[in-house]
Amino acid sequence: MSIEKLIFYGFAVILLFAATMVVTIRNPVKAALFLILAFFTSAGIWLILEAEFLALILVLVYVGAVMVLFLFVVMMLDIDLAPLQEGFTQYLPIGIVVAALITVEMIAVLGAAHFGLDIVAAPIPHPEGYSNTREIGLLLYTVYVYPFEIASVILTVAIVAAITLTLREKKSKSQNIAEQVKVRREDRVRLIKMDAVNKEEVD
Amino acid sequence: MNFEVPNMIFALPEMFMLGMACVILLTVAYLGEKGANIAYGLSQFTLIMTAFLIYRSFGEGGLTFDGTYIKDTFSDVLKLAITVINIAVLLYSTSYLKSRGLFKGEYYVLAIFSTLGMMIMVSANHFLTLYLGLELMSLCLYAMVAMHRDSKVATEAAMKYFILGAIASGMLLYGMSIIYGATGSLDLATIASAIQTGGLNDTVLSFGIVFLVIGIGFKLGAVPFHMWLPDVYHGAPTAVTLFLATAPKIAAFAMAIRILVDGLGDVHQHWQGMLIMLSVLSMIIGNVVAIAQTNLKRMLAYSTISHVGFMLLGVLSGSQEGYAAAMFYALVYSLMSLGAFGMIILMSRQGFEADNIDDYKGLSERNPWFALMMLILMFSMAGIPPLAGFYAKLTVIKAIVDINLMSVAIVAVLMSVIGAFYYLRIIKVMYFDKAEQNEPLEAPTDMCIMISINALTVLALGLFPGALLAICASVFF
Known about the structure:
The complex is a heterodimer of chains A (about 200) and B (about 475). In chain A, about 70% of the residues lie in helices and about 0% in strands. Chain A is mostly helical. In chain A, α2 packs antiparallel against α3. The radius of gyration of chain A is 30 Å and the shape is elongated. With about 475 residues, chain B is mainly α. Chain B is about 75% helix and about 0% strand. A two-stranded antiparallel ribbon of chain B has the order 1-2. Chain B is globular and about 70 Å long. Classes of the chains: A mainly alpha (about 200), B mainly alpha (about 475). At the A-B interface, α5 and α8 of A face α4, α5 and α8 of B.
């Protein structure tokens, strides 16, 4: 077994373990930390694939920015876990059956029989001095300029949507002096005439 | 590296819409609460101008942006339909939003961005643009459903919609990646030619197709991927339900055609069986469960599921006639659904949603004209001649009979008979039951005119279906 293969399997096993833990672990903070581990290991796999730029971006953006913010949110929110766990055991058997079925199918289809080296040739390693970043830059702003623009629109919409859903107009607490001076007795006090009632009747 | 400077003029409607969306966004940001009226006016202007731009360049076509964007008659017709329908949607929803304290500029910003997403989907010739358009559309829809933050049902609906939508997107992406693995391309034209050349692995292809069909089924709301639909339709504010029951269905139909026909048309035998299952189940469950509903929005949600089943009949036939029939069905369906949800908005007032079937008791006494319009819409949904819904059902069933799928055709006919029951119940309630409230119905003039145009268009399309049928046919031949 070559060293590359060894590293790949190492990363892959950790990735699968981390992903499983994200879903099954009870503590949300730990789940977020496992998600970070999953991102790290997939970045490692991307490095083996010679996608260095993307691997670094994954670490910088997801691990560095997104997940840290996510951790903040998880820590600040007081999430009641009990209702989330309800029905877990109830749905577990059918979930396991479906998951097992899909796994078997995926192994059958995605295994060496259909994607082996004799069918899909191994990629040729890039020559020395090949710059991943340069190639992505060249493609991103030429061939893929249209999808790139749409992606930026989606990010704009995400901001708009997030602000729309979270920003609540605050009721102003500042005093309006003109209003206060203008106020008359009739605006604030209302005198009601009532018949006298005996105490026993009230009780 | 070869790079062609893209022919941007093809994408003029999209670019105009994006520019105007940014203008509306800035207006709202500066004016705040006061900007809502201006945002509404600007949105209508944007939609009308976009429709005009599409109309002006109608029929010209070609690929641009290195094959990620396609402009053809199919995209022109559907984009025109989407913009025109959204003009009506915004018109209907304004009074509803105003009386519920939801009349905010953000609603219009999201609506315009969502329309942009639909147009991108319709014009996509590449898995990447298709997916990005879908996400742009869906993201806006999730936010719109959740906009009524004080309503618990709306929040719950938004949550369900968001999570199931994300799962659907995941399925779709996974399917796309498998197809990429099999054909080596994300470009629909390249995928089609790779399949035509042959030598591809059938197992891998059909494995990918399964996930693509699941994704499409989720977005259309076909059984067994329909669970979100009744809850979302019921929980969302009616104005938003109206928005997501009409134009997004056209966009989802376009996505199905782009992926299954433009990309995977030559492996038609792989996806036909799956679609037969989705379609038959949708027709049965949609129609049967709708009978038990007492809430009109829920009933219409199940009726949507059954209509999706009928529409898929046309797609699964795999013939040009079938695709044209499905396109006709999608257009007619969104027009009918526009009218039906528009009617709910018209009937509702502040603090009264008018979404129970009992609320329609004696409508013919309170306002005979509205009752007549509702009658036309319900008859059309049931598929009774001479209304548009009849021709829509007739053409899709004919397409199925042409490819000798007799048993499926029989199920379709039976289900449309069962479906007639709950549409006719609305008519019975309107005309033969005693009114519980006696005050006459009043509605803003623009809405009255719009609902009349809407229902009469359904009638006109039923009397003279030839023109629209010819347009739909010309797209695929």
